[in-house]
Amino acid sequence: VFIETDANVNQKIMLNEKEAHHLFDVLRTSDKETIRVVTNTSQVFLARVQQKPYIYLFDKMTVEQKAQHITLCCSLIKQDKFEWMLQKACELGVTRIVPFESRYSVVQLDEKKQQKKLERWSSIILASCKQCNRNDLVELTPIQKIETLKDFQSECNLVAYEKEDDPSKHLAAYLEKDPESITICIGPEGGFDEKEIEKLKNDHFSSCSLGKNILRAETAACYILSCIEYQTHC
Ligand code: SAM
């Protein structure tokens, strides 16, 4: 389970309604079973259930810190594709997701809808992190505009641009430098507007190619994260 606070060994914790329902009613966990608890600061504890909605933390696990911090700035795309992309990005090791509006996004959300979406996306991320046994929770930021993506920069900052045909600007070339943290922006179904690319370049994002085939945005996300994972372990 995930808890939103810091914690200590030998502490009794009250789970929120959703987590308690999942653990006690859906999984029907017994007090003989050991459960793994991850906090919002990526600490991992072992615990046992008590009376719903309480659990008791009895041990702390030492976990290896993630080597690379990966921020994926994802343009808004159609709902089902976006949600699929969130799920897969969590499985493939993203650490932060920054949704953003761009000129050719098919999806445009008003403020009220944005809040609802963020809540839904958070629960998709939580479920995916649990399903793939992660020891950390992927951060989701509020929906941004192109102009504010610079606030989420890393050591290496890229924008995936299908018109980039310089072979020295393939993603692999940037990954060879082994950056400790990386931020990559992916455009919507209709691609980036050239002015948006210019704006990002002015903000010190370098354009990068993902090969000669044009990938769908959600495929581009999977491709990028798989390449990073491969590079990290080879
Ligand atoms: N406007 C484009 C078209 O229809 O020709 C397609 C955009 S593509 C579906 C969505 C996004 O995926 C792009 O904005 C880009 O960020 C990324 N992308 C897809 N294929 C790419 C490639 N070969 N190199 C770099 N980025 C790519």
From TrEMBL:
Pfam families: Methyltrans_RNA. GO terms for cellular component: cytoplasm. GO terms for molecular function: rRNA (uridine-N3-)-methyltransferase activity. One of its GO terms (biological process) is rRNA base methylation. Keywords: Cytoplasm, Methyltransferase, rRNA processing, S-adenosyl-L-methionine, Transferase. It is found in: Cytoplasm. It catalyses: uridine(1498) in 16S rRNA + S-adenosyl-L-methionine = N(3)-methyluridine(1498) in 16S rRNA + S-adenosyl-L-homocysteine + H(+). Belongs to the RNA methyltransferase RsmE family. Specifically methylates the N3 position of the uracil ring of uridine 1498 (m3U1498) in 16S rRNA. Acts on the fully assembled 30S ribosomal subunit. This is Ribosomal RNA small subunit methyltransferase E. It comes from Faecalitalea cylindroides.
